[in-house]
Every structure is written in structure tokens, then in C-alpha cells.
Amino acid sequence: MQIKVGSLFACTALFATVTVAAPTPAKSNLIVFGNSLSDVGNTAALAGAPTYWNGRYSNSYVWNEYTAKILGMNLANRAYGGATSNNELSPASAKNITIPSYHDQVVAWLAANPSPSAFNLQNDLVEVEIGGNDILHRVAGLITGTVDLNEFASQLAASVAKDTQKLVNAGYKNIAIWNLPAVDKTPMVLSYGASALFKPVVATINGALKAALQPLTGVRVLDLNNLMSVGLQPAVLAALGITDSTNACYVTDNAGKVTACANPDEHMFADGIHPASRMHYLWGAVAAVLARDPAAIIDTAEALKLIGTFSIGQSSRDDNIIADGGPTTTASYSTSSYVIPTFTTSALPKCH
Fold first, then answer.
1. Is residue 85 part of a domain?
2. Per-residue b/e over 71-106, b at no fewer than 16 CB within 10 Å?
3. Is residue 338, in this structure, part of any structural domain at all?
4. CATH number of the domain within which 245 lies
5. Please, which domain of life does this record's source organism belong to (predicted)?
6. What pTM was computed for the model?
7. Closest to 71 in 3D by CA, of 350, 323, 321
8. Is 185 helix (H, G, I), strand (E, B) or coil?
9. What pLDDT, in 10s, does the model give residues 35-61?
10. Other C-beta atoms within 10 Å of 288: how many?
11. Beta bridge partners of 78
């Protein structure tokens, strides 16, 4: 695939501060905690849980794999499909095996990496995507009102903040937490006609997450809810080459048999709730943008630029930046407190 670099972050203030530096001897990590939206095979390895492709709950690579490739970082993925924020709040298991929650993932990471180098603490990027399964575990009560929404949102947010604080205390300087996606727009929720019921639940929890995480040093909340809404805009769907944004590609019957559609890359959703390949690709590119420029506005125009830059609308499992390769040169940004990889000077965009 030919990657079009001419439009990437074109003429933005970000590139006014770019200075290319010699490669550093060490390489920074993209550390990922989360659930099935981020899992690259951890739950499949732990519990033998069925997935759609190589341990992933999608038909191709997932967002953080693209982000790591674009930024030239090592990927340290500790996300588990089925994970909740904390098993004491929302227990999760598969085949009678407890799924490590966000709390468990953080504790295990810190135990395995008790003394990160100063370089890694300054340069590693921690990304967290969690909370969707907490809703699914309590969905009936949240919708009927037998579970108090505000209390549940506060408990969930406090749990996420507490474990994120552990990462801050360990010295990590760059932590990003994705809020909950627009679950109300997924095929599963649409099939039940429950969008109007889910939307305020997600909004309340996202508000609680923002409030709980705001005081933490070096922690940013990223808007996955907005990104999903942007991805569903007609112009973005057209650019992505997505022809079906409401139905799942993979459908599982009551006996557990999975029937696949003929054109998964042209679907927005792999199944009732997980994104398919091209939405994951876009998400990964957006995450890379926000790593470079936390103040970047992710709207339809920005999404269209990124789709064109990486030819996402023509991508497939075998034709993307991971399968085809890509640049990994480092550069420093005066707007950031850390060094992250970027494109070579020859690949920087020209103003038009």
C-alpha cells in the first residue's frame, strides 16, 4: 500500500516545533490496558476463548497495534477481552477462569516492572480503555433503575482513578484514558431498540470518569465516544469504504456457531459491539495524533485527512501499515515533555 503522507497534520502548529534528532539507544513503549476492544490475544491465551482472528475481537489488527506502528514504539499490551475495571465491582470470567481486570492488569504490570528506567518513565505512553463490560454486567439494573446510575458511575470512576494513580505514583508521565464509546450506536443495542436508554448511562459514566481523573498529574481523558460518532458520519463512512454501519459482520447463533459476512472490511462493526478493521485503523491513527498533539481536534475533517493519509478506505488485513511496513524515526517536540517517534523529514507534509 502506498501511504500518502502529504496530508498528515498539514500546516499545523505542531510541525512548527518539530526538530529531528538522532535515534535514541532505548525505545519507548506503548503500554496498553483494557478489554476486548484492545486485546491482541491475551484472553485467548489465558482461557482459550474464541475470537475472530488471531486472538482479536475483530477481523484484523486492533487500534493500539496501529498506534505503536505509527509512533515506532514497542507495544506492551496487557488488555484482556472481557475485562472490567475491577472484579470486586464487576466480576468477569471466561470458561471459569477469572479475567484480569484493569486493577489486576496494573498491579501485574507494576510487579513485573518494579524499577522502570528514567527514560521509560519519561517516554513511555500508557493508554487505557476500560468500562464497557462494567455496563454490560449491570445493564438490566442500570436501565430499569434498580441499580443507581450515579452511584455506579462514581464507584466505577473511583476504581479507575485509584488504579491510574498507581501508575502516576510509579512515575509514568504520559497516561491517556479513553472514555466509553457510543455503545448506543452498536448493532447489539440497536437490535434491542435501546439506544435512548443506553445513551444517558454512558454519558453519566463518562462524566464521572472525567471528574475523577482530572486531578491526576500527567493523565488525560481521550474522547472515544466522540471518535465513534465521527466514524459514523456519512462522509467518513464513505471515505472508509464502509457500506454497512448498523449490522454485525460476525453473527453467533444460540449454539455458538459463527456466520461471517462476505465483506468484513466494509462493515463498521465486526460483531454486535466490536469495531471492524477500518474503524480500528482510524482509531489507531487518531491515538497517534493525540500522542503528538493532545490539543488536536478530532472531527470529520481530521478523520478524512487521516483516512487519506493511510489509505484506510482501501486497507485490509493484508494491506495496511503493519503488513506493509512504515517509518519509525524519532523526533522531539517542544510542546511535549517527552520524545516520541514520528516520520522522517522527507515525509513531513507540504502546505497546500
1. yes
2. bbbeebbbbbbbbbbbbebbebebeeeebbbbbbbb
3. no
4. 3.40.50.1110
5. Eukaryota
6. 0.86
7. 321
8. helix
9. 999 999 999 999 998 899 999 999 999
10. 28
11. none
Per this entry, what is the length of the chain?
352
Contacts of 69 (CB under 8 A, 6+ apart): 284, 321, 322, 326
Residue 329 domain-assigned (yes or no): no
Positions of E strands within 38-119: 74-77, 93-94, 97-98
From first CA to last CA, the distance across the chain in angstroms is: 23
Q: Mapping DSSP to helix (H, G, I), strand (E, B) and coil, where does residue 98 land?
A: strand
* 36 φ/ψ angles, rounded to the nearest 5 degrees: -65, -20
Strand partners, 97: 94
Domain that holds residue 65: 26-307
Position 322 in a domain? no
Distance set, CA 101 to CA 60, 257, 328, 331 (Å):
24, 28, 32, 35
Burial of 13 (0-12, 13-18, 19+ CB in 10 A): exposed
Tell me the C-alpha distance between 69 and 285, whole Å. 10
> 176-198, pLDDT tens digit by residue?
999 999 999 999 999 989 999 99
